[in-house]
Structures are given as C-alpha cells and as structure tokens.
Design goal:
With about 240 residues, the protein is α+β, with helices and mostly antiparallel strands. The protein has eleven helices and seven strands. Strand 5 and strand 6 form a beta hairpin.
C-alpha cells in the first residue's frame, strides 16, 4: 500500500528589515514588536558583534541611571524572548543578534561594497534593490542610528555611481542613466552624479539633454550657495556643445 507523500515545507528565515522602516518577519509572518524591543534588535543588528549589557543599556538609555537603564534592558530582552527564543543570544554579560537572523542593511551594504570594489554580472543584476532601498530608519533620530544611516547613504551612493560607470563602459548608457538619476534624486547637490548623467546623455547622442542637465545643476548651485559647477563639469559642457 503506497504511503502519501509528505509535502515539503519551505523554511522561511527570520528577517529583520531596517531600511525604510522597521519590520521583523518570523516564518513569513510580520510580528508586532514593542519599540523598546525594536531598539535593542536594531542596535545589535547594526553593531553586528557581541555587546556588553552595560554598553547596550548606556547607549539606548543615556539619560537613565545605570540601574534604570539596566532595568529597561531587562524588560526589552524579556519582550524579545516572548516573540521568539532565537533572536538575541545571551552569553553571560554579552549579547548579540543570532547569526541566523537575516538583516537587510547588512545584505545591502555587502552588495554596495561589491559594486564598488569588484562589480560583476551578479551584483549589477541586483542594482534595482539598491535603487529602491534608500534610507535607514528615516524616522528614528537617535545618534547611533544617524551615524549608521550616514554610512549606508554614502555606501549606496558610491555603489550606484560605480555601477553606472561600469554600465557606461559596457555600452549600456540607458541603464547607466537610470542608475545615475537615482543618485541625483537622492543627492541633488552631488556633482559626481550629475557628471555621470551628462555622460550617459552624451553616450545616447542626446547632447541637448546633457546641456539642460548642466544648466539645472548650475542654477541649483547658484541658488543654494552662489557658486558655479567645477571646471570638470564645465569641460563636459563644452563637449556637449561640440556635439550639437
């Protein structure tokens, strides 16, 4: 007598999302996490190494006494434990996020590093993910979050510009333009992004659009700071006029 096949169940990892908003997925289900627990999980995810209880409590509750900060940390850890046993690993006085927990900002930063240092087909194929995920926890104002937000911002911009340049070298100015425009959208005053946009327009044979891009950037700089673009960008403008 044949036995019925047992359907294969797909393992869904625990996933912590920090870019754009906080989200914790456990077995594909989004959990409601108290903010005090969100802060602990976020700090451990961003530090990505074991942290002492004293340091963690002092960072998250700097205005509390040591006793009250430790008490708040104990409450947060208890609430995290109620969500799932395998989120925070406790080893004596040191805590860390379980290595099995996937963290989106770690994946995005790793992708950014590959695009800057050694861009390949696999990393270029994932550019859309980096374009869409722009900012780390934009509504959080803690200093330790702001520092990590800035690191991610710079890594993302450098990666997008590197990828756009590679795409131009590969003769794909249409894709390069999309990527470079994402840089301009994020940082309108960043000249390196504007240069790549102009180069992409020129590679497409659209010198007039490149000239218009230069004029928009020059007007923005004059309005904001009363200065003109760099000689490098003006030299690129001269090339544009020669193409018209």
């Amino acid at each position: 007598m044949a036995t019925a096949a047992i359907p294969e169940t797909r393992f869904l990892p625990t996933r912590l999302t920090l870019v754009e908003e906080f989200s914790l997925l456990l077995s594909g289900r989004r959990l409601t996490v108290p903010h005090v627990a969100e802060r602990v999980l976020t700090y451990l995810a961003l530090v990505d190494r074991p942290v002492s209880r004293i340091r963690l409590a002092g960072t998250l509750w700097p205005d509390h006494t040591d006793h009250n900060a430790s008490k708040s940390l104990r409450t947060a850890l208890w609430r995290i434990k109620q969500l799932d046993q395998r989120l925070v690993e406790v080893n004596g006085e040191r805590l860390r996020l379980y290595p099995e927990v996937e963290v989106d900002v770690a994946e995005l930063t790793s992708l950014a590093q590959r695009l800057v240092l050694a861009p390949d087909d696999a990393s270029l194929a994932r550019l859309g993910v980096l374009i869409q995920h722009t900012e780390l926890l934009p509504d959080w104002d803690e200093e330790w979050v702001a520092a990590n937000r800035e690191r991610y911002r710079l890594a993302r911009l450098a990666a997008l510009e590197s990828a756009a340049c590679v795409l131009l070298e590969r003769g794909q100015p249409d894709k390069a333009l999309i990527v470079a425009l994402a840089v301009v959208q994020a940082e309108p005053l960043r000249e390196s992004g504007r240069r790549i946009v102009m180069r992409a327009h020129l590679a497409q044979g659209n010198a007039v659009e490149a000239i218009q891009e230069h004029h928009r950037y020059r007007a923005l700089l004059r309005h904001e700071f009363g200065v003109d673009p760099s000689p490098e960008l003006n030299d690129l403008l001269t090339t544009c006029y020669h193409r018209t």
